[in-house]
Write a structure and sequence with these properties.
By secondary structure, the protein is mainly alpha-helical. It has a domain of 122 residues: Four Helix Bundle (Hemerythrin (Met), subunit A). It is 66% helix and 0% strand. It contains seven helices and no strands. The longest helix is centred in the middle third of the chain and has 24 residues. The relative contact order is 0.09. The structure holds heme C (HEC).
Length: 177
């Protein structure tokens, strides 16, 4: 009887302590609050990745074209928000590159209207590279290096001797943007 009481007491005691400990625990750690621009960028990134993912295909299905149409429209929409809400009048290059991102996405969207025509696939793939270049140039301009972390293992995917198809015109795009 005595042992039982002690045991019960012990359990009750432990429960009490547990409640106390848990109640006292700080709320689960919140992820560091992202800036609104960073959130928009993450959305742009999702759409960009969607088109990049299929950019190596030899053929686009109707569904692939739909992905391209939706993603490019999305990038246009999001870039417009970036331009209107996060303009940097003192940074000409940043401003220009945002506009470039928008026009390149618009061009990509336009290509979907010609999806049945010869060369449409190549044109769409070209636009992915144009876009990628715009991202890279702006991030480089601002000293942002996110891509090594964003695409872990990406480099290893390239076979030895294989190099990524360079983006057009600008040759100064960093490899590991
Ligand atoms: C005109 C400049 C500019 C262009 C073009 C641009 N970015 Fe960014 N990007 C930024 C800036 C500025 C930040 C940092 C935002 C912050 O942390 O407040 C950023 C951050 C990011 C981030 C990190 C967001 C996070 O979660 O912190 C990703 C991902 C990203 N950009 C993807 C892209 C992709 C993909 C493209 C091209 C389709 C692109 N960016 C084009 C300026 C640009």
């Amino acid at each position: 009887m005595v042992r039982r009481t002690i045991l019960t007491g012990l359990i009750v005691g432990i429960c009490g302590i547990m409640t106390y400990v848990f109640a006292d625990e700080p709320p689960p750690k919140q992820e560091k609050e992202k800036s609104e621009l960073a959130k928009l960028m993450s959305e742009i990134d999702k759409s960009y990745k969607a088109v990049e993912e299929i950019s190596g295909y030899y053929n686009y299905s109707d569904n692939d074209w739909k992905v391209i149409a939706e993603s490019s429209a999305n990038i246009v929409k999001l870039t417009k928000i970036v331009i209107s809400k996060f303009s940097r009048p003192d940074d000409r290059k940043y401003q220009d590159l945002n506009k470039t991102m928008m026009t390149e996405a618009e061009k990509m969207h336009e290509i979907v209207n010609h999806k049945g025509e010869q060369g449409a696939l190549e044109d769409a793939q070209w636009q992915v590279r144009r876009l990628r270049q715009t991202c890279a140039v702006c991030h480089k301009h601002l000293g942002i290096t996110i891509y090594p972390q964003l695409y872990p293992g990406k480099k290893e995917e390239l076979k030895p001797g294989q190099t990524e198809i360079p983006a057009p015109k600008e040759t100064s795009v960093p490899k590991d943007w």
